[in-house]
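note to self: dont lose this again. the chain is below, predicted strucutre after it. 598 aa total, dont forget to put it in the shared folder this time
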Amino acid sequence: MSDGTCDGLRTLLIGIDGASHEVLAERGESVVPNLTALLDRGSSGALESQIPPWTPSAWPSLYTGVNPGKHGVYGFLAFEGYDWDVVDYADVKAHALWELLSERGFTSVVVNVPVTHPPTAFDGALVPGYTSPESPTCHPSGLLADLEAELGDYRVYDDSTDPSDDRAERIESYERLLASRGEAFRYLADRFDPDFGFLQFQQTDTVFHESPEDDRVVDAVYAAADREIGATIEACDPDVVLVASDHGIGPYDGHEFRANSFLRDRGDVATTVGEGGMPSWTSIARNRLQGDPAGGAGDADGSADASGNSAANGTAGATALERSLAVAARVGVTSQRIERVVKRLGIEDLVLRIAPADAVRAAAEQVDFPASRAYVRDRIELGVRINLEGREPEGVVPPAEYDAVRSELVDALSAVETPDGEPVFEAVRPREAVFDGPYLEDAPDVVVVPNEFDQFLSASLHDEQFGPPSEPWNHKLDGLIAVAGDVDTSVSLADRFRATADGSRTAADSPAAGDGSPTGDTHREAAHLFDVAPTVLATFGLPAAERMDGDVLPVVEPAGVERYPDYDPAADGPAGAPAATEESAVEDRLADLGYLER
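---
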């Protein structure tokens, strides 16, 4: 197996999902020697993320340099009315860095970057990352087969990292996956000899969702990523290295706020049982009752379930159970109460064996989107959507009442306090105070920012509005930026900067309203997620795109601002994009990590 060498790599961008100075400091030089050395010889600081600071929206913002209002992705789900699908690259309505570089004659190799499937044509190679299916379409066509012929089986997702698995097996699975990222990049860099490289590591975030308190596993993941970073820098010897994360991560010591329960109790959310709304029983069945994120219910096509029984054999029982659970729900027995009952009776295995997702979904209290006035459709979006007439298929709020309803929601959410008397949100804003662009209409109407990202926002319906956080660790705003190599490392990235006419930054305030700022304040502290793309362009002597919301970081000489070709969805979107992502496996993985509350 060739590990690859490359000549002429001008700029290498390394993405480390969830990394921060605090996380790296916890690991120490003995665990991450290459990253420690890079930070020591370069300039580094906190990288403020956007709202929402989650993978599917933040990485597109990083690689396009624009806020979600300009690229159109606000969370893991893309909505059309009340229907939804997991987002993919067809939902990103802005040019990525590698496309802009290709337009100017530069070649790129991109490996494992989230929300890049299916890829577009450009000068170089791309292997998609998170939200793509296993065996993803790569660019150029046939690349995955070439990659696997050279390196062996290539996976997008972990094959065995459930917390209940043996620790050694989990570590081995993580290490195997992380090694494949570096090996794939170096192989492709050797083959394509790129000017720009983008290598991303996702398990540095995943491990905190799966094993946040197990330092040995976390250390092993970061050590494995660090080894690949060191090997890649040694093999490719780039002129400039940038390390960036899409957000930070840390413990959530506050409360879980069930926003739809709050809205239900206010009269904004109508509920239903049966079809409609976002399901909640799947996560109960998989995560609470069974303790197995992989699930156990059989497929609808009659394939065997975890007990060895066919789903077809359980159809009659599931139908009867569905009717029984639905009746129970209609008389006030919610899915949470059902959970307590089945656990007390010790029939978890029976329920999981004979009740497929459709059966338990029928018994769950769910948000009735068409009948509701306002609701949270996806907690990752960090916001409330108004069921507006003329926009939603069955909207109930007349356009003339939109402003009044939204102001009422802003006031109500701003006043919410935890059981300890602390505000749940540090900011509640109308969407145009946080986003701007042609896809503003796709955003939630009211944007909420959890207080210090210590309060966990949930879209699930429960009897109570508050509870303990569903996940002990989750995302924080401050990520990491580091730049080393042929740049001015004497400049600190921890200072405050303001964009000037030529795209450079000076110490002062910088406008932030409408660019993903969490509070709509009139300044940004230090570096921002949107700054990465224009900074990468500047390392090639290229101007920032006029529509970018970020600025060139002061370690790199700016090259001004210029209008690039406008994004045309018909011409620039992925050719032959599938109508839907291979949903089941991707959705299951997102649900396993707590991203989808199903």
